[in-house]
Design brief:
The complex is a heterodimer. Chain A is built from eleven helices and 13 strands. Chain A is an alpha/beta fold. Chain A has a single domain, classed as Rossmann fold (3-Layer(aba) Sandwich), CATH 3.40.50.720. The longest helix of chain A is centred in the first third of the chain and has 22 residues. The chains are: A alpha/beta, B mainly alpha.
């Protein structure tokens, strides 16, 4: 079995590659990235910059030269970066290139990670969001809206290329010692500001569970979107406490203004969009991943959060 | 401390029933009050000075008391003149502190009934036993101190005692009676003490303290207008913890307080001739003792059951105490005798003074005797005998002295002396047998051996025969009661002798002497004590041990001023701990604390800092609900008194319960869920749907979500019904909850019939439910603009839920049988079913409102 991976140096790649290395069925891993991952034996490195105009041709060449059984398109950001246009290039344009190349190479399987934040935190979310729920995204966040756009592209690709089994894994916020995303950054503070009077339900997934889910997608017979969430839910305050921090409820307008100001100055480490997710719940239903993908989370949200605490200390 | 608290608690609780058994209904309320009052009074004990000054004021109030004080003051400086006087002076100096304390206690006693004060001491005592280790050092110091004082007093007192003995007047039969009576009482004491191994050192201390208190009592009685009262009160003090004694002091100081003098009076049952006393005899004297007894055993039962070396110390202390009691009684009787028939303005004071003197002397003599012994049984006999004799012997001298001081005519003195001698003559006959009996009783009691008949006879004769008239009238019934109970107990233990003896004894008028009056006073107590003691050696003694403990606790601080502050602080601290512990241990407060905890958590949750970790997918926090359960229980059962009708109509499995929404704050969903949990535990946990406006309200929405509310949406509803849960919906929605008070219980439009569609699609039956009471719980009085919080409006309502009575009536379910799921798309059908449900609910509401007589009473 020959696997191609984009973004092997990203968080997803770091979770997946060791598993692929350990998988005896995997003969070689074609890494399509800007730099070669370290410490791997099965890797064939092919340098591709997804943000370049010629990325699509490179990818097509690489994929058609030696056919692969699956492509993991993991070249995504986990959180907004200051360079918004670059992020857009990478996520939206890069995905467009990848999808085109996959279509041309007629790959049998494509796995694309996404995030449950694409559902959007809205007051009228149902208690549990199923995969069919519309993706509202977050009106204030370019990062989330890029993700929503990627999902739209993937869905369109799936419709046009039914031969390619396309799996979209919508991950709950990933928590793990090796990860760096807005949530882990949020929880790494000793005092975490929250919205006064609101305590939405949060989900999270342990990094190990996330890696396992990605690995499971390699052989899954199902296609479509899957919510990959950890067991259970926690109120945001509970999550914060589990992670060893203390919640500090602030009145909404104050909090929002402060975040905006910080964001404008460029000192903000937390996206303003996070406020929405501190206001309303967006709890995804992991039932389909369990039944169709065979993914059963081993870690409760509590464990994921407290693992974060251990890693901090 | 916890242990102590727990140990105490049962005792407190157990006190009531037991009391009832022994003492009748009257005791019960007292017992109930005990703890509270006791703690209170104990707490007051802090303000020694305040108490003292107060008592001073009391004493002043009527002229008699003031005079007495003035005289006393005048007398003190003169004292050096005679040996006896010197001795007295010492006593005075010594006693002032004690007096102060006594005054304090008296105050307490007055503020809270005697029993209360007693109990406070009990409590503190209990505490002390547990805390004794903490204050061991201090205690030992105190003990030492007290010993010193005793020693000195013994030295001082010795000479006079000898002198008086040389005078060697015949004894009064009466005196011996008094002492015997006390002895018998003390048998109980001794038993207790022996049993209370745990606090051996403490007990000894206490015993000494007890003595002190007696002495001080005597001193205090100077203030009393009537010496008899005072002395009587001593007796009672010796008998029943000190409280009554103190009480009587206070009362004695206030001549006007005749009614208040119950405590003193009861003790003074000895004076049938005294009009004052006869009515008073009936009161508390007997009361406190039985009351206390029951309460004790449990407390000490565990700790007690003596160990040998400690017992010895206790014995010693006991012996001293007994001896001092005897001495006092004897002194009092003798002095009374001497003063008999002489009525003058100063008589009372003189009497008291004399009594005190004599008692002091006798006590010191006893101490001298005991100095090298440790209070073994024979020693006790000796001590008691010595005490009595010394007291009697000194009586004459003392009276003379007193009279001298007051510049009374010499002829009077002579008269008194003569009388004294007469009295002693009478006494002489009686004393020997009495003494013997006491000894026997002592020896046997611990071992549960019934005393030999003849001795008993003697004793009984003393106790009972004397007092036919005194006891007969007022005390008759009560006495009977006690008697009966005593008899019964005795029989249980197989000790029949004492019963028969007593019965036989009553008629036996062995000594119908001149001294009748005095004996009646002493009789009451003895008759009771011995009865209970003999019968229940195991149980009865225990209760008394704490008695001694209490006084000791109070007194301990006084005798040793050096360690006083530390002691007091420690005492107060442990007392506070005890109170807190008991309060916590009490069920009600525990629940209250739990409720407070739950409420706090609810507040934190609603603020967004709760951080629960046991949430289900819908956001219900099982931990929070558990913590809030006390509050919910209170609201449900006591505050709103929810009554539920027809709950059996709710079918198992998925069901849609359609209810009227009401009240500015939607408590109804919560109450419905609670009602279903309580009345139908077979059903799955019900959830209720809440409209967005509430669900997304800051704090309120969060809190409701954690309590089990689910946002009203078709997805959620379907999901819940899929889980086969009962689902509570309020189709009126937000406008149902926001209708003005004038439109209460008038149903609004039922939305768009979403619940009917839901029912048609899932086949779940619709159960109409009418809720009455919610409107009055939080009436909507007005609205405030609430747009800035995301509300259409903010309800203006009562600050908290009002205690309206709730009634929830479940109607007949509307089944969806015969209706296809497709009917959900048939607007006409949906409309029809919606109206059907609405009418059903409205009619039930009307019926309930018609049946309701009062909004709050139901």
């Amino acid at each position: 079995m020959r696997i191609a991976v984009t973004g092997a140096n990203g968080d997803y790649g770091k979770l997946l590659l060791p598993r692929l290395e350990a998988d005896p069925d995997v003969e070689s891993i074609l890494v399509l990235d800007t730099k070669e991952p370290q410490g791997t034996s099965k890797v064939e490195f092919h340098r591709v910059d997804l943000t370049r105009y010629d990325a699509e041709g490179e990818l097509t060449d690489a994929l058609t030269e030696r056919p692969v059984d699956a492509l993991f398109h993991l070249a995504f950001l986990f959180g907004p970066i200051l360079n918004g246009p670059l992020a857009h290039e990478l996520e939206v344009i890069g995905t467009m290139n990848v999808l085109t190349a996959v279509g041309r190479a007629r790959l049998p399987r494509l796995v694309v990670p996404s995030l449950t934040v694409t559902y959007g935190a809205r007051g009228n979310n149902p208690a549990l969001l199923r995969e069919g729920s519309p993706l509202f995204g977050c009106p204030h966040s370019r990062f989330v809206n890029d993700k929503v756009e990627v999902e739209g592209q993937v869905r369109a690709f799936r419709d046009r290329h039914p031969d390619t089994r396309t799996l979209v894994l919508r991950f709950a916020p990933l928590l793990g010692r090796s990860l760096d995303n807005p949530v882990t950054r949020l929880l790494s503070h000793s005092v975490v500001p929250t919205l006064l009077g609101f305590d939405p339900l949060w989900q999270a997934i342990h990094e190990e569970d996330a890696g396992r889910a990605l690995h499971l997608a390699l052989r899954a017979e199902a296609a479509g979107e899957f919510n990959i969430v950890g067991r259970g839910v926690l109120p945001l305050s509970g999550l914060i406490r589990q992670a060893g921090a203390r919640p500090l409820p602030l009145p909404g307008p104050l909090f929002r203004g402060a975040l905006r100001a910080l964001g404008v100055v460029g000192a903000g480490t937390l996206p303003v969009a996070l406020l929405d997710y501190m206001h309303y719940s967006w709890v995804a239903d992991g039932e389909r991943a369990e039944s169709a993908l065979g993914f059963v989370p081993l870690h409760h949200v509590r464990d994921a959060a407290s693992a974060l605490r251990r890693s901090q200390s | 401390m916890t242990k102590g608290v727990l140990g105490n608690d049962p005792f407190q609780r157990g006190a009531a029933p037991r009391t009832g058994e022994v003492k009748d209904d009257a005791a019960d309320p007292k017992a109930a009050k005990k703890s509270a009052k006791g703690t209170k009074s104990a707490g007051k004990a802090k303000s020694a000075k305040g108490g003292a000054s107060k008592s001073g004021a009391q004493a002043k109030a009527p002229k008699g008391g003031k005079d007495a004080e003035a005289k006393q003051a005048a007398a003190t400086p003169k004292t050096p003149a005679a040996k006896v006087h010197k001795f007295e002076a010492r006593t005075n100096g010594h006693g002032s502190a004690k007096q102060e304390q006594d005054a304090r206690e008296a105050e307490h006693a007055q503020a809270s009934h005697a029993s209360a004060a007693k109990d406070s001491r009990e409590a503190s005592h209990a505490k002390h036993t547990q805390d004794s280790h903490a204050s061991a050092a201090k205690d030992s110091r105190e003990a030492e101190h007290s010993k010193h004082s005793h020693a000195s007093s013994a030295k001082h007192g010795r000479t006079p005692a000898k002198d008086s003995r040389e005078a060697e007047h015949p004894k009064h039969a009466q005196d011996s009676h008094a002492s015997t009576a006390k002895d018998s009482r003390d048998v109980a004491h001794s038993k207790h003490a022996q049993d209370s191994h745990a606090s051996a050192a403490k007990d000894s201390r206490e015993a000494e303290h007890a003595k002190h208190s007696h002495a001080s009592a005597a001193k205090d009685s100077r203030d009393a207008e009537n010496s008899k009262h005072a002395s009587d009160s001593h007796a009672s003090g010796a008998k029943h913890g000190r409280t009554p004694a103190k009480d009587s002091h206070a009362r004695g100081g206030t001549p006007a307080a005749k009614p208040g003098a119950h405590d003193a009076a009861h003790a003074s049952g000895q004076h049938p001739s005294d009009e004052e006393h006869s009515p008073l005899r009936e009161p508390p004297t007997p009361g406190p003792s039985p009351e206390r007894r029951p309460s004790r055993p449990q407390m000490l039962a565990d700790e007690v059951h003596g160990s040998r070396p400690q017992e010895r110390t206790v014995d010693r202390a006991l012996t001293e105490a007994i001896a001092s009691d005897a001495a006092e009684a004897a002194a009092k009787t003798a002095v009374d005798e001497l003063f008999e028939g002489r009525r003058g303005p100063d008589r009372d004071i003189e009497r008291v003074l004399a009594t005190e003197l004599v008692a002091e002397l006798a006590e010191s003599a006893v101490r001298q005797v005991l100095d090298d012994g440790n209070g073994s049984l024979p020693e006790r006999e000796v001590a008691t005998a010595v005490a009595t004799q010394v007291a009697e012997a000194t009586a004459g001298v003392a009276v003379d002295e007193v009279l001298d001081r007051h510049a009374t005519g010499p002829e009077e003195r002579a008269l008194s002396t003569a009388e004294d001698r007469d009295a002693r003559d009478l006494d002489a006959g009686d004393e020997e047998p009495e003494e013997v009996w006491t000894a026997d009783a002592w020896q046997r009691d611990p071992k549960d051996v019934p005393p030999p008949e003849n001795t008993e006879e003697v004793w009984t004769a003393d106790a009972w025969s004397r007092d036919p008239d005194g006891m007969a009238a007022p005390d008759g019934p009560e006495e009977e009661d006690d008697f009966v109970s005593g008899v019964e107990r005795v029989e249980e233990n197989g000790v029949h002798i004492s019963v028969s003896i007593i019965e036989g004894a009553a008629p036996t008028d062995v000594e119908p002497e001149v001294e009748l009056p005095d004996e009646s006073h002493d009789e009451l107590p003895p008759s009771r004590r011995p009865l209970s003691l003999v019968s229940d050696p195991g149980e009865e003694p225990l209760p008394e041990a704490p008695e001694r403990g209490e006084p000791a606790f109070n007194h301990r601080e006084e005798p040793a001023p050096a360690a006083g502050f530390a002691g007091r602080a420690a005492g107060m601290f442990s007392l506070a701990k005890e109170i807190a512990g008991q309060a916590l241990a009490s069920e009600g407060l525990g629940r209250a604390v739990g409720a407070m905890h739950g409420l706090m958590e609810a507040v934190r949750t609603s603020l967004g800092t709760g951080g629960g970790s046991r949430l289900d997918d819908y956001g219900k926090d099982a931990g929070l609900v558990e913590n809030l359960q006390p509050v919910l229980d209170f609201l449900y059962e006591q505050y709103w008194r929810v009554s539920v009708e027809g709950v059996d109509q709710v079918p198992r499995g998925a069901a849609i319960l359609v209810a009227n929404h009401s009240g500015a704050l939607p408590y109804d969903g919560l109450v419905m869920a609670q009602a279903l949990v309580r009345e139908r535990p077979d059903l799955l946990e019900a959830r209720w749907l809440v409209e967005d406006q509430v669900f997304h309200a800051p704090m309120l929405g969060t809190l409701f979500n954690r309590l089990g509310a689910v946002r009203a949406s078709p997805e959620n509803a379907l999901r819940l019904l899929d889980e086969r849960r009962p689902l509570v919906v309020f189709p009126e929605g937000y406008q149902g909850a926001s209708k003005p008070f004038a439109e209460r219980y008038r149903l609004k439009r039922f939305g768009r019939g979403g619940f009917v569609k839901l029912a048609l699609r899932t086949g779940a039956p619709i159960v109409p439910v009418a809720i009455v009471g919610a409107e009055e719980t939080s009436p909507l009085l007005g609205r405030l603009p609430g747009g800035f919080l995301g509300f259409p409006s903010l309800p203006l309502t009562a600050p908290g839920p009002l205690p309206a009575k709730w009634t929830i009536r479940f109607g007949e379910p509307l089944t969806m049988e015969g209706l296809a799921p497709e009917a959900a798309d048939d607007l006409g059908e949906v409309q029809r079913l919606t109206e059907l449900t609405r009418e059903s609910i409205q009619s039930m509401l009307q019926a309930l409102l018609r049946e309701r007589r009062s909004v709050f009473a139901g």
